[in-house]
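pipeline/complex-builder :: batch 7 item 3
reading input block
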Amino acid sequence: MKDDDNNNNKILLVDDEPDLTLAFKLGLEDNGFEVDTFNDPLIALSAFKHKSSSYALVLLDIKMPKMNGFELYNEMRQINDQIRFCFITAYQVQKEDMNAISLSDEKSFDIIRKPIAIKEMVQRIKNQLS
Amino acid sequence: MGVIDHLIKASQKQNSANIKIICPLSKENSDIVRKVSEQAPNIRILNGTDSLYGMYIIDGEKMFRVEMREPKAETFAEAIGFALYSNRKNTVESFRSIYELLWNERVLNEELKKTYKMQEEFIKMQQEFINIASHEMKTPTQAILAYSTLVERHPERRDEMIQAITRNAVRLQKLTEDILDVTRIESNTLKLKKEQFDLNEKIRNVIDDASHVLDDSNNAIKILFDLEPKKDVQGKQCTIIEADKVRIYQVIFNLLSNAIKFTNKVAGNSISIAAMNDGENNQVIVSVKDTGEGIDREMLQKLFTKFATKSHTGTGLGLFISKSIIEAHGGRIWAENNKDGKGASFYFSLPLIKNPEQQSLERNHNSKSQ
């Protein structure tokens, strides 16, 4: 598949709460991003396989049914390790959870805690992309 | 081992001796412990500090103290060191009191360990509660926060966004109530305002309210409610109970919401509710039967405990609260997978009032005579 020419503003967002995917999508689009959203992590993963290089950043919820955000992160990193990641979660991240993800590249992701104002979320994502 | 065999024999006799052993419950002694617990369960063993170099045995009249010279020795002569035997009352008494002190100290030690373990489990559960409650609090807060900012920029989606805000505010409200209920249950301050009413009427209210919720969230969902009030031959008042209306409503609503949540929204799927008069046991049984996936075995066992949930949008408090409410009314709540097909059924029972009219007459009479 041909990559998009300009892929530095495209975000893949996975959160099992439809109310949140819509809100984040609109908020990010208002700030110049292009956003694909998924509520099911498995469907998100198969979509990612086909066009991973079209995304600049992946925004993942952590507590989701079928596959949690850390597992999804590990799978996605194997497909494409050039992409930046942000976790956005209401879940209290424990030390043990951090062991589940490869920490060799600590700077390749950020953890954003819900609830967060759209403005601030956008800023954190921009920082991660710069 | 020889000594242990003697002690086991002594414990098995008629008027058996009260035998207590303190020894290290180490790997080396596991054979002894197993043998004693199998053959002489009335001998009590407590864990002691490791002492390879001796032991002493006391009963009411004699004491025997032996020290090992060489614990790894193979023959008795090589092993035996200093030994002391006495049947003098004072000597026996003083060794006996030392042993009793040691025994009591060991008992306290075991109790302390148990308390500590319980405390740890309690802290772990509290932590889990805080984690789950905070996750459940932050998620709807996030939605409210985001949509209330977005609604100005997107007037074309105003209605949709206000609906989302309301939906999430209701979710927060429900969570707040659940947490307060759990607090009341755990501090034994759940108060019931009991009054007489017809359970069937309450069920009808819940069905009406739940139908509204259904229509709002998804117009495609059509779930059949099948209310089957079973009436006895004589009268209509076979489902009259004395209970807290609000709390009973809460339980039925919870069971019905769960049934809706776990039933596939496909035409033909149905949920049925029935209140059956079980006059023989002087109770009424309410059943909520769904055609969902059913409950898996692991879940069935912990269904009514705190935080047990299969849903990713729930705290797992609903059934715990329902159970507490029903039990506070002297009833019972249980669940099973449907034998005649897919899905699960939830039941609860509540005590019936025998002759409601007569009883209220009696009450009037009593209050007058007071």
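note: Chain B touches chain A through 22 residues (CB under 8 Å).
queue -> next item
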